[in-house]
Design brief:
Blueprint: E1 2-6, H1 10-21, E2 25-30, H2 33-42, E3 44-48, E4 51-55, E5 59-61, E6 72-77, H3 84-90, E7 95-103, H4 111-114, E8 123-128, E9 133-136, E10 139-142, E11 148-152, H5 158-170, E12 175-177, H6 181-202, H7 206-210, H8 215-232, H9 239-248, H10 261-268, H11 279-289, H12 294-309
Parallel strand pairs: 1-2, 1-6, 2-5, 3-10, 6-7, 7-8, 11-12
Antiparallel strand pairs: 3-4, 8-11, 9-10
Helix pairs in contact: 6-8, 6-10, 6-12, 8-9, 8-11, 11-12
Length: 313
């Protein structure tokens, strides 16, 4: 299968590497020039479950692909949410009538952008439990196992996704079809919608926040807003299970000392965040459904204020 990995950071590198090793025709597209130059010269290097591997995979800068001749059967999206529209615009000449687009971004509402470029019947919305990291340009660290749940947004259902699932599973990416992917996405979004923004604003790891006297009431209020919006979209959330998953993040013996990705983007790398596609998405959807979302609204405003104070780019 001819596959575009749109966004070749940590997760894009993992998927690109594993699909390339499974003998698919893979190209990587990214916007980080040093990362691109390193892969072009030395190949994509990875510590893959303790084994050092290198694969020569074609990679292009997003701004340089207009002349690249590649007709994709599948596009897998791993861009930052705010870069999604620009990426879809850049690759539109590589996307044909039968091209499937699998979106594995964090956050909510990405299908509203993608459907401007491909019909709903070609969109696969997914949620992945794979993890990955970058140790530097062109160098990925890939440990552990994972899985993918995905759903076709058109009327064709599972039949339309079977070929993509087979290709992913041939690459040992452990994909399966879901009849209600939005429930999985909203559950994951609740974790991101609490830990990411709160730890960023409070300049805190997850354990330190979780040990405060007000952590529970803040988290429960945010999750309540997510749940009310999810219900309007026929996505069922087990609130007790969601809260238990969030509170498990406080454990210092496991991941409690970790700073979430939004913290790393803004506080460490001075990059703009994805808050508009997590809590901000709940605010926008709340306005449509007539649901008040004061906690998500305030947290979104605070993060934007912090971005402006830090002059993030």
């Amino acid at each position: 299968m001819k596959i575009i990995i749109a966004g070749a950071g940590a997760m894009g590198s993992r998927f690109g590497l594993m699909l390339h090793q499974a003998k698919n025709d893979v190209i990587l597209i990214d916007g980080w020039q040093e990362h691109i130059d390193t892969i072009k010269e030395y190949g994509l290097q990875a510590n893959f479950n303790g084994e050092e591997v290198t694969e020569m995979i074609p990679i292009y800068h997003q701004s340089d692909i207009s002349s690249v001749e590649f007709s994709a059967d599948l596009v897998i999206l791993f861009t930052k949410a705010m870069q999604l529209d620009g990426m879809m615009q850049s690759i539109k000449n590589m996307v044909g009538e039968k091209t499937k687009v699998l979106c594995l971004l964090n956050g909510i509402g990405h299908e509203d952008v993608i459907k401007k470029y491909v019909p709903l019947s070609n969109i696969l919305l997914g949620n992945t439990m794979w993890t990955a990291g970058l140790e530097g340009p062109g160098k990925a660290k890939l440990f552990g196992n994972g899985s993918i749940d995905l759903q076709n947004l058109g009327n064709e259902g599972k039949e339309s996704a079977d070929e993509v699932i087979a290709v992913l599973n041939d690459a040992k990416l452990n994909a399966k079809y879901s009849d209600n992917i939005l429930s999985s996405i909203y559950k994951k979004a609740c974790v991101n919608g609490t830990m990411n923004g709160l730890c960023t604003i409070l300049d805190s790891n997850m354990a330190d926040f979780g040990e405060t006297d007000v952590a529970d009431v803040i988290v429960e209020s945010i999750v309540s807003e997510f749940a009310q919006v999810a219900e309007k979209e026929n996505a069922t959330l087990d609130i007790d299970a969601v809260l238990a998953q969030i509170k498990s993040c406080y454990n210092r013996e496991t991941i409690g000392l970790h700073h979430p990705s939004m913290y790393q983007d803004l506080m460490i790398n001075n990059r703009l965040t994805e808050i508009d596609f997590i809590n901000g998405a709940i605010v926008r959807k709340g306005e449509v459904y007539g649901i008040e979302t004061p906690y998500c609204s305030f947290l979104t405003q605070l993060v934007h204020a912090k971005e402006q104070i830090m002059k993030a780019k």
